[in-house]
Amino acid sequence: MTARELPHPRSGSTRSDPGTPVHDLVGIGIGPFNLALAALADRVGGVRTLFLDRSTEFRWHPGLLVDGTTLQVPFLADLVTLVDPTSPWSFLAYLRAHDRLFPFYFAERFHVPRREYDHYCRWTAAALPSCRFGADVTRAAWDAQSGLYRVEFRDTKTGETHHAAARNLVLGIGTEPVVPAPFAELLDTHGPRDVLHSADYLDHRDSLTAAPDVTVVGSGQSGAEVFLDLLRRRTSPRHRIAWLTRSPAFAPMEYSKLGLEHFTPDYTRYFHGLAEPVRDRVLPAQAQLYKAVSAETLAAIHDELYERGVAGGRVRATLMPGVSVTTVVRTPVGLELGCHHTQQDRAFTTLTDKVVLATGYAPRRPDLLDPLDAHLLRDARGRPRIGLDHRIALDESVTGGLYVQNAELHTHGVGTPDLGLGAHRAAVILNAVCGRAVYRLPARTAYTTFGLAAGDTAAPAPLPAPPDELETPRVPAY
Questions:
Q1: Measured between alpha carbons, how far is 163 from 347 in angstroms, rounded to an integer?
Q2: Residue pair 163/303 in contact by the 8 Å Cβ criterion
Q3: I want to staple 73 with a disulfide (CB 3.0 to 4.6 A). Which of 77, 116, 367, 457 is the partner?
């Protein structure tokens, strides 16, 4: 069966206008997650895919590719390895292509530099024929007559408009910076740039380094890395730097081996099976699993502060947790921040020259999806209902699959934004699109038993014994 003849299991027959290519899957946005899907689909015969992104090339958090920073997940959490270690798009294959296998071998590094991960993804994206950059998707709609999604996109170089038809869509649009309300009106790209999000940090690092007083707001990994980088670069005794956060402490991320099992498919299945109100209670209590700072970064900050204090040196740095910024006023002498200390219930003000907002990211919802909005089925809080296979629930008039990547935190839990689950999620989506297990996925991925199965009244059985060593090995199906 050719790709053009391959219908989605629920879609039945399809018909397209002459000249408009029909794809089994069109991805909107090319970040690491859709790139993983493109890489895995590249090895599956008979499946026609297309991935579109408005950028001229792959870019992964370019404003935060600070020298010395690494991924918070091991290199095995690349685009494909945890699903298909034999893939030509693995990180090890990338190293081999660049004659870096021996240096990597001797470096004995489990966590690779963030700049190298970005280069690996750009290498993969440039080589995959299904990835098209400079393609700005302007509209995506369901066409009931043909039983296909219609995607309209503009070539950013020529301005020409193109169309594609798809039996399934996958949204990998990514996230956008979160800007707290007090700063919203001051974040002006045409103004003095005294307020900026950490996503743009490297573009403005020189001006931040030169400023007499800088305040970093937010205590996640990005906030810690920005604070550390500025601390190292600001050597004048006149320079001051502050780090404020609403969190009650500058706390390390949970990184114990059993704690990390919350980032397994087992936990994802368990979390998805909980009742919606329970999920909404559980998720906020798990911030230390995915929103805190690596212990190594916190140690590096402490070491830097300690070195500054040798021989009576003065450390002009303020680290203050439990503080909310409630107001911001731009004055002739700088930014006046109105703050509130939560535990002491006391208000105070501080004056600074520049602010870096390391306040995280949230899923984007672009206007191009307006035609599909009326078809979405929503939960009690108005959020899309999303199945375990990452398929958004739609009304019965839409038979094509609409899948999502990294916008299902409310249904799939803390592993949603984690790179370590990217390959597995991509394989789940690809298996669902193909209607068969083109990639075999493990039945058990954690030692922890997170809950009882339906109908269980006794403790679960232990893990099964390993197969006999002479058993015929199981190989991936493509």
A1: 56
A2: no
A3: 77
Tell which residue, 218, 192, 231, has the closest CA to residue 361: 218
- CB proximity list for 354: less than 8 A, separation 6 or greater: 194, 195, 196, 207, 208, 211, 213, 214, 215, 335
Cα 335 to Cα 355: distance, rounded to the nearest angstrom: 8
d(CA 23, CA 30): 17
Angle between helices 295-308 and 221-233 (to 10 degrees): 20
- Rounded-to-integer distance, Cα 43 and Cα 90, Å: 13
AA identity, residue 43: R
Element (H, E) at 141: strand 135-143
Q: In the numeric block, which tokens belong to residue 288?
A: 């230390």
CA distance 210 to 231: 12
**pLDDT at site 446:** 96
* pLDDT computed for residue 33 by the predictor: 98
Q: At what angle do helices 422-434 and 32-41 cross, to 10 degrees?
A: 50
Whole-angstrom distance, CA of residue 451 vs CA of residue 342: 36
The band of 15, judged by pLDDT with boundaries at 50, 70 and 90, is: very low
CB within 8 Å of 294: residues ≥ 6 apart: 72, 221, 224, 252, 253, 255
pLDDT confidence bin for 21, thresholds 50/70/90:
confident
| Contacts with 129 (C-beta within 8 Å, 6 or more apart), sequence order | 42
The pTM for the full model equals 0.91
- Residue in this structure with the two tokens 């190293």, named with its chain if needed: 95
Flag whether pLDDT at 9 surpasses 80.
Answer: no
